[in-house]
Specification:
Layout lengths: L8 E5 L3 H13 L5 E6 L3 E3 L17 E3 L1 H6 L2 E5 L2 E5 L4 E4 L2 E4 L2 E4 L3 E3 L7 H4 L1 E2 L3 H19 L4 E7 L7 H16 L6 E7 L12 H12 L2 E3 L4 E5 L2 E4 L4 E3 L2 E4 L3 E3 L22 E2 L2 E6 L11 H20 L10 E7 L4 E7 L10 E4 L3 H17 L7 H18 L2
Parallel strand pairs: 1-2, 1-9, 2-5, 9-21, 11-18, 12-13, 12-18, 13-14
Antiparallel strand pairs: 3-4, 6-7, 7-8, 10-19, 15-16, 16-17, 20-21, 22-23, 23-24
Helix pairs in contact: 1-7, 8-9
């Protein structure tokens, strides 16, 4: 199944944000100059940012985008399989028993969660990393609703443990659940508790967000605790390393993260995330291999950052093929819309200069929900067309709209 071609062969492992942005952007930059093979263990892309709505009725299938059709239209060879091994010296990827050669390799296999690291978490907590877990959470919330309406007060505990590298969705879930409880007229009979190992709330996005989150917790009557690192979980209770315990009826957690796929042939940290150059995202010691998105060692896992990393990779890869200097590299600036249903909070954070308040922006308004919906429509549409998210007139229009909203409703 290996491809023989005089053109450089670029192999991309992973059909998520980083992998698809890299594949489609590279094809746009080099329409005929390279062969591209996309390897994914799934035949669809899942728009994970909108999984937040699954517990409240959204059909998970509505978040899926076919991979095979767009790949075919863009002359990208699609291989539905799992990559087991990378031999960087031989430039070979082992895929379901066959050897796939490459000239350039982009690893975008993402992250996974490992709840078993914390005793009892896997057994007792409802997690939020997959669509299947979100469906289970829907059932748990509906059972809680029935108990409260039957006269039994309940308590929900949101738990963010150490080694979690994508904290924002759990914050988002806490706010959405609080809104859902109010709209079902049971808020006063459900206690909400938040506990996190972090010193400051959403500290992965810099110190400026702590007060934003703190105000939202207080406004919603959510009991909150920072510097609460979980020690173990039991039925109905969580014990923290500081000796304090907290009871619960429903526990909602985002577990510690690890690399979704381990490739011992590549340099990586203790959690399997691939060691890269921070600007080019080239794998250390292997300049013809790149790591995009959650598979790499950047400490914050987020879709927008995965897209930015993929764009930097295709620029560097294009430059290598064209024998020129790259024009730009990865700039770690995060944009995030924190859904709350009754409103939304937008943040723009320069992650390498988190104290640069002149560049940090934040604003809360129901109008930001429109921005989130725009992104939730635009991005899957681009991938369904086999086009990169960034670039072209549609992106410039969306970017202009978001900038205008930022100027009006954020500071």
């Amino acid at each position: 199944m290996a491809t023989q071609s005089a053109k450089p062969l670029v192999v991309i492992i992973g059909g998520g944000f980083g992998g698809l942005e890299a594949a489609y952007d590279l094809r746009k930059r080099l329409p005929h100059e390279v062969d591209i093979t996309l390897i994914s263990n799934s035949d669809y892309f899942l728009f994970k940012p909108n999984m937040i709505y699954i517990p409240f009725g959204l059909d998970p299938h509505s978040l899926k985008v076919d991979l095979q059709g767009p790949a075919r239209r863009k002359d990208i060879t699609f291989v539905g399989a799992t990559a087991q091994e990378i031999n960087p010296e031989a430039r070979i990827v082992t895929v379901n028993g066959y050897r796939q050669r490459y000239d350039y390799l982009i690893v975008a296999t993402g992250a996974a969660t490992r709840a078993v690291e914390i005793p009892g978490l896997d057994e007792y907590a409802q997690t939020i990393w997959t669509s299947e877990a979100m469906l289970q959470l829907r059932s748990s919330l509906n059972r809680l609703l029935e108990k409260v309406k039957g006269g039994k007060p309940q308590s929900i505990l949101f738990l963010l443990p150490p080694k979690n590298q994508c904290p924002a969705p759990l914050y988002e879930m806490a706010f959405v659940v609080e809104t859902w409880l109010r709209r079902n007229n049971i808020r006063e009979r459900v206690e909400l508790h938040w506990s996190t190992h972090e010193q400051n709330y959403l500290e992965a996005l810099g110190p400026n967000l702590h007060d934003v989150v703190l105000n939202e917790f207080d406004r919603r009557g959510i009991h909150h605790h920072s510097q609460y690192a979980v020690e173990h979980v039991s039925a109905g209770g969580v014990r923290y390393r500081n000796g304090i315990s907290q009871s619960y009826d429903l526990l909602i957690a985002s577990p510690p993260h690890v690399a979704a796929a381990a490739f011992p042939g590549l340099p990586s940290d203790e959690r399997g995330f691939i060691a890269t150059d921070p600007i080019s995202r080239q794998v250390l010691d292997y300049p013809n291999i790149y790591a995009a998105g959650d598979a790499g060692d950047y400490p914050l896992k987020q879709a927008f950052l995965a897209l930015r990393q993929a764009d930097a990779i295709t620029e560097h890869l294009h430059a290598a093929i064209a024998e020129r200097e790259p024009a730009f590299g990865f700039e770690p600036v995060s944009h995030y819309v924190l859904e709350q249903v009754d409103t939304a909070t937008y943040v723009r954070v320069p992650l390498e200069q988190p104290d640069g308040k002149q560049r940090f922006k934040s604003g809360t308004s129901p109008l930001w929900r429109m921005g989130k919906r725009m992104i939730g429509t635009y991005l899957p549409w681009r991938f369904s067309e086999g086009e990169p998210v960034h670039g072209d007139l549609p992106w410039r229009g969306l970017e202009t709209g978001m900038k205008l909203m930022s100027d009006l409703f954020a500071r």
